[in-house]
Protein backbone atom coordinates (compact mmCIF):
# COMPACT_ATOMS: atom_id res chain seq x y z
CA UNK A 1 0.00 0.00 0.00
CA UNK A 2 1.17 3.54 -0.75
CA UNK A 3 -0.65 5.05 2.21
CA UNK A 4 -0.76 3.59 5.71
CA UNK A 5 -4.12 4.31 7.33
CA UNK A 6 -5.18 3.14 10.75
CA UNK A 7 -8.62 1.65 10.20
CA UNK A 8 -10.77 0.63 13.19
CA UNK A 9 -11.50 -3.08 13.64
CA UNK A 10 -15.06 -4.26 13.07
CA UNK A 11 -15.69 -4.37 16.83
CA UNK A 12 -14.33 -0.82 17.31
CA UNK A 13 -16.45 0.44 14.46
CA UNK A 14 -19.53 -1.10 16.06
CA UNK A 15 -18.67 0.54 19.38
CA UNK A 16 -18.21 3.94 17.70
CA UNK A 17 -21.59 3.63 15.98
CA UNK A 18 -23.27 2.76 19.27
CA UNK A 19 -24.13 -0.83 18.27
CA UNK A 20 -24.40 -3.63 20.79
CA UNK A 21 -24.73 -6.45 18.25
CA UNK A 22 -21.67 -7.99 16.60
CA UNK A 23 -21.37 -7.25 12.89
CA UNK A 24 -21.03 -10.37 10.75
CA UNK A 25 -18.48 -8.95 8.31
CA UNK A 26 -16.55 -11.27 5.96
CA UNK A 27 -12.79 -11.36 6.35
CA UNK A 28 -10.95 -10.50 3.15
CA UNK A 29 -7.55 -11.59 4.52
CA UNK A 30 -8.09 -13.66 7.66
CA UNK A 31 -5.28 -15.04 9.79
CA UNK A 32 -4.96 -18.75 8.96
CA UNK A 33 -2.80 -21.40 10.58
CA UNK A 34 -1.16 -24.21 8.64
CA UNK A 35 -3.77 -26.93 7.97
CA UNK A 36 -6.65 -24.56 8.74
CA UNK A 37 -9.30 -23.52 6.18
CA UNK A 38 -11.26 -20.25 6.23
CA UNK A 39 -13.64 -18.38 3.96
CA UNK A 40 -12.31 -15.30 2.21
CA UNK A 41 -14.80 -12.56 1.43
CA UNK A 42 -18.52 -13.28 1.10
CA UNK A 43 -18.75 -15.16 -2.21
CA UNK A 44 -17.85 -18.66 -1.03
CA UNK A 45 -14.10 -18.61 -1.73
CA UNK A 46 -12.17 -20.81 0.75
CA UNK A 47 -8.45 -20.94 1.51
CA UNK A 48 -6.55 -23.71 3.28
CA UNK A 49 -2.96 -22.90 4.27
CA UNK A 50 -0.41 -25.57 3.33
CA UNK A 51 2.90 -23.73 3.88
CA UNK A 52 3.43 -20.30 5.44
CA UNK A 53 5.12 -17.58 3.44
CA UNK A 54 7.76 -15.07 4.49
CA UNK A 55 7.47 -11.43 5.59
CA UNK A 56 4.20 -9.55 5.94
CA UNK A 57 3.60 -8.02 2.51
CA UNK A 58 0.95 -9.15 0.02
CA UNK A 59 0.76 -8.37 -3.69
CA UNK A 60 -1.55 -5.54 -4.77
CA UNK A 61 -3.78 -4.98 -7.76
CA UNK A 62 -1.64 -4.29 -10.83
CA UNK A 63 1.37 -6.25 -9.54
CA UNK A 64 2.91 -8.90 -11.78
CA UNK A 65 2.78 -12.20 -9.88
CA UNK A 66 4.54 -15.49 -10.60
CA UNK A 67 2.95 -18.73 -9.37
CA UNK A 68 3.02 -22.50 -9.69
CA UNK A 69 -0.38 -24.19 -9.54
CA UNK A 70 -2.24 -27.46 -9.90
CA UNK A 71 -5.98 -27.31 -10.77
CA UNK A 72 -8.42 -30.14 -10.00
CA UNK A 73 -12.14 -30.81 -9.83
CA UNK A 74 -13.67 -31.79 -6.47
CA UNK A 75 -13.37 -35.47 -7.42
CA UNK A 76 -9.61 -35.05 -7.78
CA UNK A 77 -9.50 -34.96 -11.59
CA UNK A 78 -6.59 -32.76 -12.64
CA UNK A 79 -7.30 -30.41 -15.54
CA UNK A 80 -4.25 -28.11 -15.53
CA UNK A 81 -0.79 -27.80 -13.95
CA UNK A 82 2.07 -25.36 -14.41
CA UNK A 83 4.31 -27.80 -12.56
CA UNK A 84 3.74 -30.44 -15.23
CA UNK A 85 4.75 -27.89 -17.85
CA UNK A 86 7.80 -26.92 -15.78
CA UNK A 87 7.15 -23.22 -16.28
CA UNK A 88 5.70 -20.82 -13.66
CA UNK A 89 2.62 -18.83 -14.69
CA UNK A 90 2.80 -15.01 -14.71
CA UNK A 91 -0.10 -12.53 -14.82
CA UNK A 92 -1.18 -9.07 -13.60
CA UNK A 93 -3.20 -9.30 -10.42
CA UNK A 94 -6.64 -7.70 -10.29
CA UNK A 95 -6.75 -6.93 -14.02
CA UNK A 96 -9.21 -9.67 -15.05
CA UNK A 97 -6.52 -11.80 -16.70
CA UNK A 98 -7.52 -14.84 -14.60
CA UNK A 99 -10.70 -16.07 -12.91
CA UNK A 100 -12.07 -13.94 -10.08
CA UNK A 101 -11.26 -16.56 -7.45
CA UNK A 102 -7.58 -16.21 -8.29
CA UNK A 103 -7.63 -12.41 -8.19
CA UNK A 104 -9.32 -12.48 -4.77
CA UNK A 105 -7.33 -15.36 -3.30
CA UNK A 106 -3.77 -14.65 -4.41
CA UNK A 107 -3.83 -11.09 -3.04
CA UNK A 108 -4.05 -12.68 0.45
CA UNK A 109 -0.80 -14.63 -0.01
CA UNK A 110 2.79 -13.90 1.04
CA UNK A 111 5.94 -14.66 -0.88
CA UNK A 112 6.70 -18.41 -0.78
CA UNK A 113 3.27 -19.29 0.62
CA UNK A 114 1.42 -22.40 -0.62
CA UNK A 115 -2.37 -22.68 -0.24
CA UNK A 116 -5.32 -24.68 -1.49
CA UNK A 117 -8.19 -22.54 -2.82
CA UNK A 118 -11.71 -23.95 -3.20
CA UNK A 119 -13.42 -21.70 -5.75
CA UNK A 120 -17.21 -21.75 -6.35
CA UNK A 121 -18.46 -21.58 -9.95
CA UNK A 122 -19.49 -17.91 -9.55
CA UNK A 123 -15.79 -17.05 -9.12
CA UNK A 124 -14.58 -19.58 -11.71
CA UNK A 125 -16.17 -20.51 -15.09
CA UNK A 126 -19.84 -20.34 -14.04
CA UNK A 127 -22.70 -21.99 -15.90
CA UNK A 128 -20.78 -22.40 -19.17
CA UNK A 129 -17.71 -24.13 -17.70
CA UNK A 130 -14.63 -24.49 -19.90
CA UNK A 131 -15.15 -27.50 -22.20
CA UNK A 132 -13.92 -30.09 -22.49
CA UNK A 133 -12.02 -30.19 -19.15
CA UNK A 134 -14.26 -28.16 -16.83
CA UNK A 135 -18.00 -28.92 -16.73
CA UNK A 136 -20.75 -26.29 -16.15
CA UNK A 137 -21.22 -25.00 -12.54
CA UNK A 138 -18.04 -26.70 -11.40
CA UNK A 139 -16.39 -25.93 -8.06
CA UNK A 140 -12.64 -25.96 -8.59
CA UNK A 141 -9.63 -26.50 -6.38
CA UNK A 142 -6.25 -24.91 -7.03
CA UNK A 143 -3.07 -25.63 -5.11
CA UNK A 144 -1.14 -22.37 -5.59
CA UNK A 145 2.42 -21.43 -4.59
CA UNK A 146 3.23 -17.70 -4.80
CA UNK A 147 6.84 -17.65 -6.01
CA UNK A 148 7.29 -13.88 -6.27
CA UNK A 149 5.77 -10.69 -7.53
CA UNK A 150 6.90 -7.44 -9.07
CA UNK A 151 5.27 -4.35 -7.62
CA UNK A 152 3.64 -2.02 -10.15
CA UNK A 153 2.41 1.31 -8.71
CA UNK A 154 0.41 4.15 -10.25
CA UNK A 155 2.54 6.70 -8.42
CA UNK A 156 0.57 9.81 -9.44
CA UNK A 157 -2.84 8.10 -9.09
CA UNK A 158 -3.84 9.29 -12.57
CA UNK A 159 -2.29 6.63 -14.80
CA UNK A 160 0.50 9.03 -15.78
CA UNK A 161 3.44 7.08 -14.33
CA UNK A 162 3.48 3.35 -13.61
CA UNK A 163 6.48 2.13 -11.63
CA UNK A 164 7.52 -1.50 -11.79
CA UNK A 165 10.11 -2.40 -9.13
CA UNK A 166 12.86 -4.56 -10.62
CA UNK A 167 15.22 -4.60 -7.63
CA UNK A 168 14.05 -3.76 -4.11
CA UNK A 169 15.90 -0.97 -2.31
CA UNK A 170 17.26 -0.80 1.23
CA UNK A 171 15.58 0.55 4.37
CA UNK A 172 12.35 2.51 4.41
CA UNK A 173 13.28 6.13 3.69
CA UNK A 174 12.59 8.04 0.47
CA UNK A 175 14.16 11.27 -0.79
CA UNK A 176 12.40 14.58 -0.11
CA UNK A 177 12.14 17.77 -2.19
CA UNK A 178 15.32 19.39 -0.83
CA UNK A 179 17.46 16.25 -1.10
CA UNK A 180 20.15 15.74 -3.75
CA UNK A 181 19.75 12.38 -5.49
CA UNK A 182 22.30 10.45 -7.55
CA UNK A 183 20.66 8.29 -10.24
CA UNK A 184 21.37 6.21 -13.32
CA UNK A 185 18.75 6.13 -16.06
CA UNK A 186 17.97 5.10 -19.61
CA UNK A 187 14.98 6.60 -21.46
CA UNK A 188 13.45 5.00 -24.55
CA UNK A 189 10.50 5.61 -26.85
CA UNK A 190 7.82 2.89 -27.00
CA UNK A 191 9.51 1.38 -30.06
CA UNK A 192 12.74 0.96 -28.08
CA UNK A 193 14.60 3.94 -29.56
CA UNK A 194 17.12 5.30 -27.04
CA UNK A 195 16.58 9.01 -26.25
CA UNK A 196 18.78 9.70 -23.25
CA UNK A 197 21.10 7.78 -20.95
CA UNK A 198 23.30 8.58 -17.95
CA UNK A 199 25.56 6.36 -15.87
CA UNK A 200 25.35 8.85 -13.03
CA UNK A 201 23.76 12.26 -12.59
CA UNK A 202 23.00 14.29 -9.44
CA UNK A 203 20.09 16.71 -9.05
CA UNK A 204 17.91 18.29 -6.39
CA UNK A 205 14.54 16.53 -6.28
CA UNK A 206 12.42 19.68 -6.35
CA UNK A 207 14.35 21.00 -9.38
CA UNK A 208 13.99 17.74 -11.28
CA UNK A 209 15.99 16.48 -14.28
CA UNK A 210 15.36 15.37 -17.87
CA UNK A 211 11.53 15.13 -17.55
CA UNK A 212 9.01 15.54 -14.68
CA UNK A 213 8.67 11.77 -14.21
CA UNK A 214 12.17 11.36 -12.74
CA UNK A 215 11.58 13.72 -9.80
CA UNK A 216 8.17 12.20 -9.05
CA UNK A 217 9.49 8.65 -9.23
CA UNK A 218 12.58 9.08 -7.03
CA UNK A 219 10.38 10.37 -4.19
CA UNK A 220 8.81 6.88 -4.06
CA UNK A 221 12.10 4.95 -4.23
CA UNK A 222 14.51 3.53 -1.67
CA UNK A 223 18.29 3.56 -1.81
CA UNK A 224 19.55 1.02 -4.37
CA UNK A 225 16.10 0.47 -5.90
CA UNK A 226 15.83 -0.19 -9.63
CA UNK A 227 12.55 0.41 -11.44
CA UNK A 228 10.97 0.52 -14.88
CA UNK A 229 8.78 3.57 -15.44
CA UNK A 230 6.01 3.65 -18.01
CA UNK A 231 5.50 7.38 -18.54
CA UNK A 232 2.61 9.03 -20.36
CA UNK A 233 3.30 12.20 -22.32
CA UNK A 234 2.08 14.64 -19.61
CA UNK A 235 4.96 13.51 -17.38
CA UNK A 236 7.41 13.31 -20.30
CA UNK A 237 7.54 16.19 -22.82
CA UNK A 238 3.83 16.77 -23.45
CA UNK A 239 2.17 18.04 -26.58
CA UNK A 240 5.26 19.84 -27.88
CA UNK A 241 7.75 17.00 -27.47
CA UNK A 242 11.44 17.92 -27.25
CA UNK A 243 13.88 18.99 -29.96
CA UNK A 244 17.21 17.29 -30.43
CA UNK A 245 19.66 18.09 -27.61
CA UNK A 246 23.30 17.41 -28.48
CA UNK A 247 23.64 13.72 -29.30
CA UNK A 248 20.17 12.95 -27.94
CA UNK A 249 17.47 12.56 -30.59
CA UNK A 250 14.23 14.56 -30.54
CA UNK A 251 11.11 13.35 -28.73
CA UNK A 252 7.90 13.46 -30.82
CA UNK A 253 4.79 15.29 -29.51
CA UNK A 254 2.57 13.28 -27.12
CA UNK A 255 5.18 10.52 -26.86
CA UNK A 256 5.14 8.01 -24.01
CA UNK A 257 8.45 6.82 -22.59
CA UNK A 258 9.95 3.75 -20.94
CA UNK A 259 12.59 4.75 -18.37
CA UNK A 260 14.90 2.38 -16.52
CA UNK A 261 15.79 4.23 -13.31
CA UNK A 262 18.16 3.37 -10.47
CA UNK A 263 18.35 5.43 -7.28
CA UNK A 264 22.01 4.93 -6.37
CA UNK A 265 22.08 7.21 -3.32
CA UNK A 266 21.07 10.60 -2.03
CA UNK A 267 22.23 13.33 0.32
CA UNK A 268 19.65 14.44 2.84
CA UNK A 269 19.12 18.21 2.87
CA UNK A 270 17.16 19.65 5.80
CA UNK A 271 15.68 23.10 6.33
CA UNK A 272 17.13 23.83 9.78
CA UNK A 273 15.25 27.10 10.39
CA UNK A 274 12.07 26.27 8.44
CA UNK A 275 12.54 29.33 6.24
CA UNK A 276 15.17 27.85 3.87
CA UNK A 277 17.79 30.28 5.18
CA UNK A 278 19.88 27.61 6.90
CA UNK A 279 20.18 24.38 4.90
CA UNK A 280 22.13 21.33 6.00
CA UNK A 281 23.27 18.70 3.49
CA UNK A 282 24.48 15.47 5.07
CA UNK A 283 27.70 14.30 3.40
CA UNK A 284 28.24 11.35 5.76
CA UNK A 285 25.62 9.87 8.09
CA UNK A 286 26.32 9.98 11.80
CA UNK A 287 25.95 7.26 14.42
CA UNK A 288 23.20 6.60 16.94
CA UNK A 289 20.26 8.88 17.49
CA UNK A 290 21.41 11.47 20.06
CA UNK A 291 21.97 15.10 19.07
CA UNK A 292 23.29 18.10 21.02
CA UNK A 293 20.91 20.36 22.95
CA UNK A 294 21.34 23.87 24.33
CA UNK A 295 24.34 24.00 26.63
CA UNK A 296 26.07 20.99 25.03
CA UNK A 297 29.83 21.26 24.56
CA UNK A 298 30.60 20.09 21.00
CA UNK A 299 33.95 19.23 19.46
CA UNK A 300 34.04 19.75 15.68
CA UNK A 301 36.22 20.09 12.61
CA UNK A 302 35.14 23.25 10.82
CA UNK A 303 35.94 25.06 7.58
CA UNK A 304 34.00 28.22 6.67
CA UNK A 305 34.00 29.57 3.11
CA UNK A 306 32.49 32.45 1.17
CA UNK A 307 30.58 31.89 -2.06
CA UNK A 308 33.76 32.43 -4.11
CA UNK A 309 35.60 29.74 -2.12
CA UNK A 310 37.58 32.09 0.13
CA UNK A 311 38.26 30.35 3.47
CA UNK A 312 37.54 32.70 6.38
CA UNK A 313 37.81 30.20 9.24
CA UNK A 314 39.40 26.78 9.70
CA UNK A 315 39.42 25.08 13.09
CA UNK A 316 39.80 21.61 14.59
CA UNK A 317 42.16 20.30 11.89
CA UNK A 318 45.79 19.10 12.07
CA UNK A 319 45.55 17.85 15.63
CA UNK A 320 44.04 21.10 16.90
CA UNK A 321 40.82 20.75 18.92
CA UNK A 322 37.97 23.17 18.46
CA UNK A 323 35.02 23.06 20.82
CA UNK A 324 32.23 25.43 21.73
CA UNK A 325 29.06 25.51 23.78
CA UNK A 326 25.77 25.41 21.91
CA UNK A 327 23.48 28.45 22.21
CA UNK A 328 26.14 30.67 23.75
CA UNK A 329 26.77 32.89 20.67
CA UNK A 330 30.25 31.43 20.26
CA UNK A 331 29.58 30.81 16.54
CA UNK A 332 27.07 32.24 14.05
CA UNK A 333 23.42 31.55 14.83
CA UNK A 334 22.96 29.48 11.66
CA UNK A 335 25.86 27.19 12.51
CA UNK A 336 24.71 26.99 16.14
CA UNK A 337 21.28 25.80 15.09
CA UNK A 338 22.59 23.37 12.48
CA UNK A 339 24.93 21.69 14.97
CA UNK A 340 21.93 20.83 17.16
CA UNK A 341 20.62 18.58 14.34
CA UNK A 342 23.85 16.56 13.95
CA UNK A 343 24.80 13.11 15.21
CA UNK A 344 28.20 11.89 16.35
CA UNK A 345 30.51 11.35 13.37
CA UNK A 346 28.21 13.16 10.96
CA UNK A 347 29.74 15.31 8.22
CA UNK A 348 27.65 18.05 6.63
CA UNK A 349 27.66 21.12 4.44
CA UNK A 350 25.73 23.96 6.10
CA UNK A 351 24.65 26.92 3.95
CA UNK A 352 23.81 29.99 6.05
CA UNK A 353 22.08 33.08 4.65
CA UNK A 354 23.17 36.53 5.98
CA UNK A 355 20.20 36.76 8.37
CA UNK A 356 21.69 33.90 10.41
CA UNK A 357 25.34 34.88 9.85
CA UNK A 358 26.85 38.39 10.08
CA UNK A 359 23.92 40.22 8.46
CA UNK A 360 24.51 43.65 6.91
CA UNK A 361 27.82 44.15 8.73
CA UNK A 362 31.34 43.36 7.57
CA UNK A 363 33.13 40.97 9.96
CA UNK A 364 36.85 40.33 10.41
CA UNK A 365 37.34 36.58 10.89
CA UNK A 366 40.37 34.42 11.54
CA UNK A 367 41.58 34.08 7.92
CA UNK A 368 39.62 36.68 5.93
CA UNK A 369 37.12 39.50 6.10
CA UNK A 370 33.49 38.43 5.58
CA UNK A 371 31.77 41.16 3.51
CA UNK A 372 28.36 42.48 4.50
CA UNK A 373 25.33 40.37 3.48
CA UNK A 374 27.46 37.28 2.79
CA UNK A 375 26.10 33.74 2.49
CA UNK A 376 28.41 31.35 4.34
CA UNK A 377 29.30 27.73 3.53
CA UNK A 378 30.45 25.60 6.45
CA UNK A 379 31.95 22.13 6.06
CA UNK A 380 31.60 20.57 9.49
CA UNK A 381 32.30 17.23 11.11
CA UNK A 382 30.85 16.37 14.51
CA UNK A 383 33.80 14.78 16.31
CA UNK A 384 32.07 14.37 19.68
CA UNK A 385 29.78 16.12 22.15
CA UNK A 386 28.92 16.02 25.82
CA UNK A 387 25.29 16.85 26.56
CA UNK A 388 24.14 18.60 29.68
CA UNK A 389 22.70 16.17 32.19
CA UNK A 390 18.93 15.83 31.77
CA UNK A 391 16.66 16.39 34.76
CA UNK A 392 15.55 12.74 34.88
CA UNK A 393 19.17 11.73 35.49
CA UNK A 394 19.52 14.10 38.49
CA UNK A 395 18.70 13.79 42.16
CA UNK A 396 16.79 16.57 43.94
CA UNK A 397 19.84 18.59 45.00
CA UNK A 398 21.36 18.37 41.51
CA UNK A 399 18.10 19.69 40.03
CA UNK A 400 18.12 22.66 42.43
CA UNK A 401 21.75 23.42 41.61
CA UNK A 402 21.06 23.16 37.86
CA UNK A 403 18.07 25.50 38.18
CA UNK A 404 20.20 28.03 40.09
CA UNK A 405 22.89 27.83 37.41
CA UNK A 406 20.36 28.45 34.64
CA UNK A 407 18.99 31.44 36.56
CA UNK A 408 22.49 32.96 36.79
CA UNK A 409 23.09 32.32 33.07
CA UNK A 410 19.77 34.01 32.33
CA UNK A 411 20.78 37.02 34.40
CA UNK A 412 23.99 37.40 32.38
CA UNK A 413 22.10 37.33 29.08
CA UNK A 414 19.46 39.74 30.43
CA UNK A 415 22.10 42.28 31.42
CA UNK A 416 23.61 41.91 27.93
CA UNK A 417 20.22 42.75 26.39
CA UNK A 418 19.79 39.22 24.95
CA UNK A 419 16.27 38.74 26.24
CA UNK A 420 15.28 35.73 24.12
CA UNK A 421 18.36 33.80 25.24
CA UNK A 422 17.79 34.84 28.85
CA UNK A 423 14.17 33.68 28.63
CA UNK A 424 15.27 30.22 27.45
CA UNK A 425 17.61 29.91 30.44
CA UNK A 426 14.89 30.85 32.93
CA UNK A 427 12.47 28.39 31.31
CA UNK A 428 15.09 25.61 31.48
CA UNK A 429 15.73 26.47 35.12
CA UNK A 430 12.06 26.10 36.05
CA UNK A 431 11.95 22.84 34.05
CA UNK A 432 14.49 21.24 36.39
CA UNK A 433 12.37 21.87 39.52
CA UNK A 434 8.83 21.91 38.14
CA UNK A 435 7.98 18.53 39.65
CA UNK A 436 9.13 18.52 43.28
CA UNK A 437 6.98 15.80 44.89
CA UNK A 438 10.10 13.78 45.78
CA UNK A 439 11.86 16.80 47.37
CA UNK A 440 12.34 17.22 51.11
CA UNK A 441 10.62 20.18 52.82
CA UNK A 442 13.83 22.19 52.73
CA UNK A 443 14.38 21.35 49.05
CA UNK A 444 10.78 22.31 48.27
CA UNK A 445 11.36 25.71 49.86
CA UNK A 446 14.54 26.21 47.80
CA UNK A 447 12.69 25.15 44.64
CA UNK A 448 9.81 27.52 45.44
CA UNK A 449 12.13 30.52 45.68
CA UNK A 450 13.86 29.57 42.45
CA UNK A 451 10.53 29.12 40.61
CA UNK A 452 9.41 32.56 41.75
CA UNK A 453 12.70 34.17 40.78
CA UNK A 454 12.98 32.47 37.36
CA UNK A 455 9.36 33.14 36.42
CA UNK A 456 9.59 36.81 37.50
CA UNK A 457 12.80 37.31 35.52
CA UNK A 458 11.28 35.52 32.54
CA UNK A 459 8.26 37.82 32.76
CA UNK A 460 10.65 40.78 32.57
CA UNK A 461 12.13 39.21 29.40
CA UNK A 462 8.69 38.79 27.88
CA UNK A 463 7.87 42.44 28.58
CA UNK A 464 11.07 43.45 26.77
CA UNK A 465 10.14 41.12 23.90
CA UNK A 466 6.59 42.55 23.82
CA UNK A 467 5.09 39.12 24.51
CA UNK A 468 2.60 40.55 26.98
CA UNK A 469 0.24 37.57 27.16
CA UNK A 470 3.09 35.28 28.17
CA UNK A 471 4.24 37.85 30.73
CA UNK A 472 0.74 37.75 32.28
CA UNK A 473 0.89 33.91 32.47
CA UNK A 474 4.29 33.91 34.15
CA UNK A 475 3.28 36.51 36.75
CA UNK A 476 0.10 34.57 37.43
CA UNK A 477 2.20 31.44 38.11
CA UNK A 478 4.17 33.42 40.69
CA UNK A 479 1.01 34.77 42.30
CA UNK A 480 -0.37 31.23 42.53
CA UNK A 481 2.64 30.47 44.75
CA UNK A 482 2.82 33.86 46.53
CA UNK A 483 -0.33 35.98 46.21
CA UNK A 484 1.34 39.02 47.84
CA UNK A 485 4.33 39.19 45.51
CA UNK A 486 4.59 42.90 44.61
CA UNK A 487 6.93 42.35 41.64
CA UNK A 488 4.51 39.88 40.07
CA UNK A 489 1.57 42.28 40.56
CA UNK A 490 3.65 45.15 39.17
CA UNK A 491 4.85 43.29 36.06
CA UNK A 492 1.44 41.81 35.37
CA UNK A 493 -0.02 45.32 35.59
CA UNK A 494 2.59 46.48 33.05
CA UNK A 495 1.52 43.70 30.68
CA UNK A 496 -2.18 44.44 31.22
CA UNK A 497 -1.61 48.12 30.34
CA UNK A 498 -0.01 47.11 27.03
CA UNK A 499 -2.90 44.73 26.37
CA UNK A 500 -5.35 47.59 27.16
CA UNK A 501 -6.81 45.58 30.04
CA UNK A 502 -6.87 48.76 32.12
CA UNK A 503 -9.30 47.62 34.81
CA UNK A 504 -7.22 44.50 35.52
CA UNK A 505 -4.05 46.63 35.59
CA UNK A 506 -5.66 48.98 38.14
CA UNK A 507 -6.65 46.03 40.34
CA UNK A 508 -3.07 44.73 40.41
CA UNK A 509 -1.56 48.17 41.08
CA UNK A 510 -3.97 48.91 43.93
CA UNK A 511 -3.25 45.52 45.50
CA UNK A 512 0.53 46.11 45.16
CA UNK A 513 0.19 49.53 46.86
CA UNK A 514 -1.82 48.00 49.69
CA UNK A 515 1.08 45.60 50.30
CA UNK A 516 3.88 48.16 49.72
CA UNK A 517 2.48 51.73 49.83
CA UNK A 518 5.90 53.36 49.39
CA UNK A 519 6.99 51.40 46.31
CA UNK A 520 8.16 54.07 43.82
CA UNK A 521 8.02 51.79 40.77
CA UNK A 522 4.40 50.84 41.45
CA UNK A 523 3.47 54.48 42.04
CA UNK A 524 5.07 55.45 38.72
CA UNK A 525 3.16 52.68 36.96
CA UNK A 526 -0.08 53.95 38.55
CA UNK A 527 0.63 57.37 37.08
CA UNK A 528 1.24 55.75 33.64
CA UNK A 529 -2.03 53.89 34.01
CA UNK A 530 -3.96 57.08 34.84
CA UNK A 531 -2.39 58.83 31.83
CA UNK A 532 -3.40 55.88 29.63
CA UNK A 533 -6.97 56.03 30.93
CA UNK A 534 -7.12 59.77 30.15
CA UNK A 535 -5.63 59.15 26.69
CA UNK A 536 -8.16 56.42 25.88
CA UNK A 537 -11.04 58.53 27.24
CA UNK A 538 -9.91 61.43 25.04
CA UNK A 539 -9.60 59.15 21.99
CA UNK A 540 -13.04 57.66 22.71
CA UNK A 541 -14.52 61.15 23.02
CA UNK A 542 -12.92 62.18 19.71
CA UNK A 543 -14.04 58.99 18.02
CA UNK A 544 -17.64 59.16 19.15
CA UNK A 545 -17.69 62.95 18.71
CA UNK A 546 -16.62 62.46 15.10
CA UNK A 547 -19.35 59.86 14.57
CA UNK A 548 -22.01 62.12 16.14
CA UNK A 549 -20.85 65.06 13.99
CA UNK A 550 -21.13 62.95 10.82
CA UNK A 551 -24.56 61.69 11.85
CA UNK A 552 -25.73 65.25 12.56
CA UNK A 553 -24.44 66.46 9.20
CA UNK A 554 -26.17 63.57 7.45
CA UNK A 555 -29.45 64.32 9.20
CA UNK A 556 -29.21 67.99 8.11
CA UNK A 557 -28.59 66.91 4.50
CA UNK A 558 -31.55 64.55 4.59
CA UNK A 559 -33.75 67.29 6.08
CA UNK A 560 -32.68 69.81 3.42
CA UNK A 561 -33.34 67.28 0.67
CA UNK A 562 -36.81 66.57 2.02
CA UNK A 563 -37.66 70.31 2.09
CA UNK A 564 -36.61 70.68 -1.54
CA UNK A 565 -38.79 67.78 -2.53
CA UNK A 566 -41.79 69.33 -0.75
CA UNK A 567 -41.21 72.68 -2.52
CA UNK A 568 -41.42 71.12 -6.01
CA UNK A 569 -44.80 71.60 -7.81
CA UNK A 570 -46.91 68.53 -8.32
CA UNK A 571 -46.38 67.00 -11.74
CA UNK A 572 -49.30 67.53 -14.11
CA UNK A 573 -50.63 64.66 -16.18
CA UNK A 574 -50.98 66.27 -19.60
CA UNK A 575 -53.28 63.49 -20.73
CA UNK A 576 -55.98 64.32 -18.16
Automatic annotation (TrEMBL):
Biological process terms from the Gene Ontology for this record are:
cellular heat acclimation
* E.C. number: 5.2.1.8
One Pfam family assigned to this protein is: TPR_19
Q: Which residues form a coiled coil?
A: none
Annotated protein name in UniProt: peptidylprolyl isomerase
Where is region (Disordered) located? 1-29, 555-576
Q: Which UniProt keywords apply?
A: Calmodulin-binding, Isomerase, Repeat, Rotamase, TPR repeat
Q: Which reaction does it catalyse?
A: [protein]-peptidylproline (omega=180) = [protein]-peptidylproline (omega=0)
Molecular function GO terms recorded: calmodulin binding; peptidyl-prolyl cis-trans isomerase activity
Query: Which InterPro entries does the record match to this protein?
Result: FKBP4/5/8-like, PPIase_dom_sf, PPIase_FKBP_dom, TPR-like_helical_dom_sf, TPR_rpt
PPIase FKBP-type domain ranges (all copies): 62-150, 178-267, 295-386
Can you name the source organism?
A: Coffea canephora
EC main class here is isomerase
The TPR repeats are at 486-519
Family membership: Belongs to the FKBP-type PPIase family.
Amino acid sequence: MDDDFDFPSASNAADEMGMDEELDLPETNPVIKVGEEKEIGKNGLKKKLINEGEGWENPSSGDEVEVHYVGTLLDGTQFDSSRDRGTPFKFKLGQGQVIKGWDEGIKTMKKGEKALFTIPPELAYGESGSPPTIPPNATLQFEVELLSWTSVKDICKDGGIFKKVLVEGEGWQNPKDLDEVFVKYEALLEDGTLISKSDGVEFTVKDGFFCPALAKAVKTMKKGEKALLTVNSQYAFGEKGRPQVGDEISVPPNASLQINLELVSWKTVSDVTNDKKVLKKILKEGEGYERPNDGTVVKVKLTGKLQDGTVFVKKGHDGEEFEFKVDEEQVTEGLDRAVKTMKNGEMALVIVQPEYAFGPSESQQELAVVPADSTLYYEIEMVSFVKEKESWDMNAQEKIEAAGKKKEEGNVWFKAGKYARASKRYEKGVGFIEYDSSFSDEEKQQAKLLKISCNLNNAACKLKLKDYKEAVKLCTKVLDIDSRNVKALYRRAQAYIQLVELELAEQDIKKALEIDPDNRDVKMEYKILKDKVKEYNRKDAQFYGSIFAKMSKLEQQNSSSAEKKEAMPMAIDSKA
